[in-house]
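Exam prep: given the inputs below (a chain plus pyridoxal-5'-phosphate), describe the expected output before reading on.
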Amino acid sequence: MANDKTPVSADPASWSPETQLVHGGVMRSQFGETSEALFLTQGFVYNSAEQAEARFKNEDPGFQYSRFSNPTVSMFEERLRLLEGAEVCRAAATGMAAVTASLLCFLKAGDHIVAARAMFGSCRYIVETLCPRFGISMTLIDGRDIENWQAALRPNTRGFFFETPANPTLDVVDIAAVSALGREHGIITVVDNVFATPMQQRPLAYGADVVVYSATKHIDGQGRCLGGAVLCSEKFLTDHLQDFIRQTGPSLSPFNAWVMLKSLETLPIRVRAQTETAARVADGLAGMTGISRVIYCGRADHPQADIIKKQMTGGGQMIAFEVEGGKEAAFKLQNALKIIKISNNLGDSKSIITHPPTTTHYRIGPEARAELGITDGMLRLSIGLENADDLAADLEAAVKAARTS
Ligand SMILES: *Cc1c(COP(=O)(O)O)cnc(C)c1O
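Solution:
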């Protein structure tokens, strides 16, 4: 609602997030369509040979080829950019394409990267396996303690990378502290902000240089398309990212961009509803016999509640919990669920449960799991848009079923 004191500005940067996500970035065609158009085209026709020349010399600002840019993809990028408050946004085909581009675009042989070891398996592969193959050394640390970041520094450290909250243990990294340390030493800090979503955490405002998303998660939010995004400064784009994306081609399909563009319109409503339900479900789980531990960023008993309070504006919709009885009980619990689905995605409108030790974190092995605190009884729950009472009842019955027989 517009208030009396501030006249509504035509500048989208001055709008509230909800308004930016409905109207931000719109580029209407000559038909004046209400809903954003899907430009499913690889290329663009030039009016003359002179115009083609001017486009390729960057003297004419129009589109050239959808690997570089496309009107639907540009609308998606601009909408997300406004929300994040970043100087620029570049879309990518998947979250992993975004993570890979954000790191490999600026790291080179001889450089060193420090990363928090609690992270998504594929992100861990990029840092632990892929980077060293190209002469980029790495150190994995427990990112919860700022002293570990300091201790891992080397003269050639060029990048910091972390996920916060991390998958699946919901460990948190102090964005401001790590980014400040990075800045002091000329290090670029890249934050994977998937779990918090741009609605509940703004890493750039806390000093991070680059933010990456898997748009596959909350941004689509309805389990349909893969997508990703990198948000950064103009300088990072020109110095590093622009050419990397343009020439290596991890580009987002215009169709997927259109789905995500429309999904952004409902992101605030979905994240708010899922967070409210998650808070209720987490409290319910904490009171159940047979559940030994509940980790939720919105609960006061989260081990890093002080940092969460500082940098997050909501508890999110991810819950990790431990069932007594290890793998056997965790399997029984999952198999007894009627509404919550067994799958490995997250941020979906459908509630989803995963057993990390046998799925997403199977490959890292028992030692790495123990180091991360991923026990055999741990389950990861992504809360969807279903009725909170239905979800609570589904879980209660499943926890009971895991304890009997
Ligand atoms: C899913 C996920 C990714 C990878 O995203 P894709 O779209 O599946 O490639 C990266 N980081 C985190 C934290 C994720 O949850």
